[in-house]
User: What shape does this take?
Amino acid sequence: MADKPSDLVQGTLDMLILKTLALEPMHGYGIAVRLEQMSKGVFRLNAGSLFVAFQRLQRAGLIKSEWKATENSRRAKYYVLTDQGRKRLSSETREWGRQVAAIARILEAS
Amino acid sequence: MSLLRSMTGGLRSLFRKEQVSHELDEELNGFLEMAAEEKMKQGMGRKEALRAVRLERGDLEATREVVRSAGWESFVETSWQDLRFAARTLRKSPGFTAVAVLTLALGIGANTAVFSVVNALVLRPLPVERPKELAFLENAHYGPGQSFPNYKDLRDRNQTFAGLIGYRIAPMELEMDRGAERIWGYLATGNYFDILGVQPALGRFFNQDDDLHPGASPYGVLSYSAWQSRFGADPAIVGKTIRLNRLPYSVIGVAPPDFHGTELFYWPEVWVPMMMEPRIESNSWLDNRNTWNTWVVGRLKTNVSPPQAEADLNAVAAEMARQYPDVNDGLHFKLAKPGLIGNMIGGPAKAFAFGVLILAALVLLVACTNLASMFTARATERQREVAVRLAIGAGRGRVVRQVLTETLVLSLLGGAVGYLLASFLSQALSHWRAPMDFPVQFSVNPDWRVFLFALGGAILAGTLFGSAPAWRVSRTDPNAALRGASATWGRSRLAFRDLLVVVQVALCFVLVSASFLSLRGLQQALKMNLGFQPERVATAAFELSLAGYSEERGRAFQQQVLRAIQQLPGVQSASYSNSVPLSIDQSSTGVFPADKPDLRPSDRIGVTFYQVSPGFFATLGTRLLAGHEFTWHDDAKSRQVAIVNLAFAKRVLHTDNAVGKRFRGGVMGPFAEVIGVVEDGKYGSLTESQEPAVFWSILQSYNSTTTLEVKSSLSATQMVSEIRQAIARLDPELPLYGVGSLEHMLGFAFFPTRAAAIALSAFGILAIMLAATGIHGLVAYAVSRRTHEIGIRMAVGARPVQVLRLVLGKTAALLVFGSLVGLTLALAVGQVISSIVYETQPRDPVVMVSVWVAIALLGLFASWAPARQAMRVDPMVALRYE
Assistant: This one.
């Protein structure tokens, strides 16, 4: 059971966050829950690594943020994918697919 | 783009810290609340839910810290904290800080000062266009000069130079309202300014067309400082007439302020076209292929490398050698960096400067070991504080960074003070004029290179001496340290500090022995027999042909002046000659033994010669070994006579008893008979071995260059003004130069030795100071650490001597070991020094022993106070301390 971010391949957390945001703008907790649900509980993310990633992505211009009310009328910071982030997501997804296929070939070969 | 965003994001967090941190708090709280609500929906109580979230997602306080420290701005922020902390700790121990800053300032200042000289000599280019393309033409066999016809051939036949310029240092007599003055200028070919690419500050420069026919272009270009100081910066100077050597020249322009010609050390006041040479100097050599008077600098064509240019020049040289085999045989050229007369001055000056730079680096190294040991001691004292910080969660990296910040702050402070010291020193050096009648001056003012050097030195020093305590701190064991087990650092740490002391003592030994060696050399040089006694001899010189005297009038005038001087009160003896030994102006000629009738060049012996009046040897105090001095009857009407020195007698005449022997002076010169033999002396430099010299009677061979020598019972300054008045009564217009005491004038000959001795002693003194504080620190620290132990020992009956042995035993061992290492190094370094400073023997036992004694005394002196403190330890107080 991988519940530590260090168990994620380096850099994949960023890609997963971008993927999550590709559907709709979301706040931090929402992203955490969505990642957990989509991975069927494999990734339970530590708040520290999550928020550091938000800061990093934001500084890189891949996401931006705005304060909005939640459905429970609570104020929360929503993260939105930028155009640049969308491009990055598609290129990283492609690259990821290539790598996974390659690794799979190697593992099946022997 | 993203870098920019990262920058603005970081800057926002830095400067709007409150808001950013507030936002983060709100976001994280929201996260916590939402997660807790989820749990509460599943039926947990609020408290329980919050706890569960914390377990699952990590502590929010920690998260906040992690997020904060993830951006680059946090680095800036912690650095700022470290800086403030460093400033606070340094302020808390002002004594420690002052010693550290002073140590560094001396080390870095010494290095920076030396570097600014190296910079001025080697690194800084001439202030002309594309200075890298310039090269000085050196005659591989004959030295720096070329003959003017050879220059013209080279200029016209080479393929690789955009242009070749020729120039010559020339003294001139400038007539001003207040009388004539001797100034120094350049004779320069017409293309000089165009090839160098210098722009005039005022008016224009002369060019190729102004320099076509001998005597046809009476133009002068003034240096900026000459225009300022001699002509009051007259804005209408261009077009005015000045008189040089009693002929009118029109001023056509003024050079820019930072341009001092093509040699770094020589600042001319006026440039005159080369074709005016016959008017400026009394004899013309423009057509003489065997007068090597012209210095040549060339500008390489673009894309031509120096080796290509040398090959090209030497192809031309081979051609010239075939054409004029009698003078150009074996002609061969080398290129050198311009600015220091090629390698003639450049070679030794650079070697010396780099040698001193190495010594300066050693001083800095001593300073660094000193500080490393001071800081390691301090780190030990602060281990509790460090341990507390580690225990409450500071990372080791942060603690190390904090220590390094402190040492860097110190070293930058020290570097700043050192840079200021060096600036003062080099300002003084730039304004200093060597004590001679020659405008030797060069600018060593610090520029950006020097500043970068000082900054780099400071950072290097800080990292160097900071790494020791930083390493120490990074290994602190908080558990042991907090238990109060201060001794647990034990053996290995002490061994490291011991090593520092050994290094320090060894380096100190090297530096001190270097300065002792050079001082001893200087002392020997000052005691050395010069072949004359300069005490209470005043000199004054004038040039009669420049002043328009014919030979006949000149002879009469010289004797008139001498008679007038001899009448002055207090004068014991007076004479005149063309020059005096060890002044800058020396002449040599070739002589042949009388028994070699065919005058083959291989039999020619080069000798220094002087033309002197009767009374010359008595005035200078040169001992006559045989025969007698010249008399007023040794004139043109009588047979040719000569006085020679002992070396001449041995080398040329092969006898000690040369009186009555004859020899030939120069090619086809007349036979001369030796009428006296004088002791050997020094003529060109202090470092020469015993050179042959011949003295002619000036009555038999006239020379318009006249130096008066006056021995008197008066002080030199009094005598000098008497001499000035006496000459002015005979010719009020005649400019005098080289006026002063002979001892003062010898400053020129003693200059290299003196400069070396001063520089080396300064380093020696610095090293001694540093080593003293280093040893003192070591012993004081040892005593303070062992106060408790000493107390116990004294309580159980140890005598003071035993305590002393306890405290000093190790120091003594370290001193002896360090000195041994230093001795080995010093013997190697001594070889280098003996090549710079005259009369030094690298293995001089007196020096080595006295250095050893000095270091031992130093050790004793430095450990005196702490050792006394150790002996006075009151067992009761020491034991109560814990």
In short: Chain B has 28 helices and 21 strands. Chain B touches chain A at residues 1-2, 5-6, 9-10, 23-24, 26-28, 30-31, 33-35, 37-38, 56-58, 60, 62-63, 66-67, 70-71 (CB under 8 Å). The first strand of chain B starts at residue 134 and ends at 139.
